[in-house]
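Lecture 7 notes: from sequence to structure.
We start with the chain below.
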Amino acid sequence: MSLEVKIPPLGESISSGVLATWHVADGDTVKNGQALFELETDKITSEGLAEADGVISLKVEEGAEVKIGEVVAEIDTDAKGETAPTSSAPAEEEPDAPAAESTQSPAVRRLAEETDVDPSTVEGTGKAGRVTKGDMLAAAKSPETPSSSSAPTPAPKPQPAAAKPAASGERQTRKKMTPLRAKIAERLVQAQQQAAMLTTFNEVDMSAVMELRKKYQDVFVKKNGFKLGFMSFFTKAVVHALKEVPGVNAMIDGKEIVTNNYYDVGVAVSTPKGLMVPVIRDCDTLSMAGIESAIGEVAKRARDGKITLADLDGGVFTITNGGIFGSMLSTPILNAPQSAILGLHAINERPMAVNGEVVIRPMMYLALSYDHRLVDGKEAVTFLVKVKEAIEDPTRLLLDI
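Predicted structure tokens for the same chain:
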């Protein structure tokens, strides 16, 4: 019996994507529920799972654009083959079984180009001695690459220390933009073209928050199992400021102004696939630990490619932290249709005048970009001052003042 492997539906707004990676090779034995491929769309990256046990036959190469519902492989549920490796460790070697180049899977050919590992020098563990993706990954990670010797313990071949250089005279390389990167680019340009974007700045003394974290960090970790970071403080400060300046918690919809009476805050996360903004729901009802936990969970899913449309949907305000990369100052771009975004930056010790004396304080620049069509300068500046006050005196968050 043959079972078709189709691209699953991911939401009404997604009709196609790019089959970025096969996690299995042609002829591998797969198990029900096993991840087969990675699909990149203009919104999320998701995985396709096997719906039965059997031997898989690939129909589409990596990098191909596919439609929702398209058949990309077939699983022969009556056949038996070699189990696809689930780790980087190679399976038992079959030194007498040649790995013909004509039978190499798309994944093996791609890895050969990327790692400069010659598949003919790798002992195949697949059907009829075929070199699998797992064999190539193991060879690339190993300090020595196995040769095609027929001895039980293959003679080693040195692994190239550097990536394959560009061809002589080649000064540029080209590759197709992924759907996610293309969508990010489109949204950023639209945000700049459709909004009257303006940025206002302030600086905040991080001494109080840093002292609070230092004092209670061990107790916090012992109770919750994770560290108390800066993002929970800023998220709470943003919620406080949105309540004080509700005009920032609004957006333009055609000729109407929509004011939000809830506090779902987006947190920008840098991933290998591009920037994503998962949303933390109802931040006004969450504790500091609840916010830290939620941010950690969605950030991990985003980086692991497990993010869903529900994680990205909605949001009334966004916080982006370029400081983790060392940014001193920036002008963040709006996350449409939101009307404002707060940019955090690196914490640097600087001399500051305090009560007529020069003291060294850990300072951070804050940047609030906002849509001037909706938010006036007074509201933007007041909002940023409220954030500053809450961070410099965290007890304000407890007393809601």
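Points to note: The longest strand covers residues 357-371. The chain has two domains: 2-158, 179-399.
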